Amino acid sequence: MNASDGAFDDLLASWRVEGRDLVPRQWIDFDTLLGRVDAAAGRGRLEEAAAAAHVAAAYAVFWHCGVFVSHRLEAQIRRIGAAALPW
Q1: Domain housing 71
Q2: Is the pLDDT of residue 64 over 60?
Q3: Residue 42 and which of 16, 25, 53, 75 are 20 to 30 A apart at CA?
Q4: Tens digit of pLDDT for each residue in 9-54?
Q5: Structurally, how many domains does the chain consist of?
Q6: ∠ CA(58), CA(80), CA(87), 5° rounding?
Q7: Long-range contacts: 32-36, Cβ < 8 Å, 24+?
Q8: Is 6 inside a domain boundary?
Q9: From CA 45, how far away is CA 43, in angstroms rounded?
Q10: How far apart (Å, rounded) are the C-alpha atoms in residues 38 and 33?
Q11: How many Å apart are CA 11 and CA 57, to the nearest integer?
Q12: DSSP characters for 12-32?
C-alpha cells in the first residue's frame, strides 16, 4: 500500500471515523479515573490519590480524551500536594 493508491485513503478515512468514535468512550474512562483520585483524596489516602492521578495522566497521554489539558486533574494534584505538606 502506498500513499498514491485509494486503499491508503480509505484506511485513513476509516481511522478518522474510528478515532472520533473512540474519543467519547476514552473521556468516560478518564473521568472514571479522575473519580478514583477524588475518592482516595477524600479518604485521606494521599499516596493512593497521587498514584491514581499518575494513572489518569498516563491514560490521557496514550488515549486521547478530547482535551489537551485537564484543569480538574491539575487541581486534584495541587490539593494532594498541599494536603501532604506539613505546613
Answers
A1: 23-84
A2: yes
A3: 25
A4: 888 888 888 888 899 999 999 999 999 999 999 999 999 999 999 9
A5: 1
A6: 145
A7: 33/59, 34/70, 34/72, 34/73, 34/76
A8: no
A9: 5
A10: 9
A11: 29
A12: HHHHHHHHHHHHHHHHHHHHH
